[in-house]
Write a structure and sequence with these properties.
Radius of gyration: 18 Å
Helix content: 55-70%
Order of helices and strands: HHHHHHHHHHH
Strand content: under 5%
Mean pLDDT: 93
Number of domains: 1
Low-confidence stretches: none
CATH superfamily: Ferritin, core subunit, four-helix bundle
Structural class: mainly alpha
Number of helices: 11
Number of strands: 0
Length: 269
């Protein structure tokens, strides 16, 4: 690949529309980064955020229009796995946008988010494989685009992006996945349980990466992270967050007790 720097590589991965090509390019970019072949200097600024490359399907609808079914039926489990696959696909784009958009960050920042992109691609493949075993293809059901909407709203500042995308929206997976695993166990769906256990383990690490770089940006600007987080949650979510919150997983992912209290105050268990 004739990529002059990590930002050109990230943009190529972000723009790829076909899923297999996005994942292939992601792995090429990760290998080149590990080999030291991608520089972190760029003469051109990031373009304004637009829509990422993605396939024509699934059809994107409002969250209320996404089908919700009980996990006791195969149809319900398929709908759940499709929704999770869509989240993981979005997460690939979110990781590459975090690389592409925010310049002049330490090299470890780019290493971290490239790693996230590769792990999200693996998560997507796990869910895609399980969906296919159930007779479903990613794109067969509608999906919503809440994660990317927040990416657009936070494209102006890495501190705000780190606070609200990995630490609020993506961290919801830490809260709800243990309960989903329990329900799938009761339904006897051991294959889906195995995939979700891998995803939960990795997602704690991904949220921790968001925490690391949120705190890095706060320290760089001489800001109090806990105060900034509370203000951003209030400004962007206006009390719309809902509990319960998985405190143990969130502590592992770099939340402080004060930040957990902020979530508790704004959420309704």
């Amino acid at each position: 690949m004739n990529w002059s720097n990590v930002f050109v590589a990230a943009k190529a991965c972000l723009d790829a529309a076909e899923i297999s090509e996005k994942i292939r390019l992601s792995r090429v970019a990760e290998r080149l980064w590990q080999d030291g072949a991608l520089a972190t200097n760029s003469v051109s600024p990031a373009l304004p955020i637009g829509e990422p490359g993605r396939p024509a399907r699934p059809v994107l609808v409002t969250p209320a229009q996404v089908p919700k079914r009980g996990l006791g039926s195969q149809e319900g489990r398929t709908a759940l796995l499709h929704a999770l696959a869509h989240i993981e696909f979005n997460a690939i784009n979110l990781a590459w946008d975090a690389v592409y958009r925010f310049r002049d960050m330490p090299p470890q920042y780019y290493s971290d988010w490239i790693r996230v992109a590769i792990e999200e691609a693996y998560h997507f493949e796990l869910l895609q494989k399980r969906l296919r075993s159930l007779g479903c293809e990613y794109g067969d059901l509608p999906a919503h685009d809440g994660l990317w909407d927040m990416a657009k709203r936070t494209a102006f500042d890495p501190m705000v992006r780190m606070a609200l995308v990995p630490r609020v929206l993506e961290a919801r997976g830490l809260d709800v996945t243990p309960g989903i695993i329990t329900k799938l166990q009761h339904a006897g769906d051991d294959e889906s349980v195995a995939a979700l256990r891998i995803i939960l383990r990795d997602e704690i690490g991904h949220v921790a990466i968001g925490s690391r770089w949120f705190h890095h940006e706060c320290e760089r600007r001489d800001l109090v992270a806990e105060q900034v987080f509370a203000e951003l949650v209030e400004d962007y979510f206006h009390g719309q967050l809902r509990g319960p919150f998985h405190y143990e997983a969130r502590l592992q992912a770099g939340f402080s007790e004060a930040e957990l209290h902020t979530l508790q105050r704004t959420g309704t268990p």
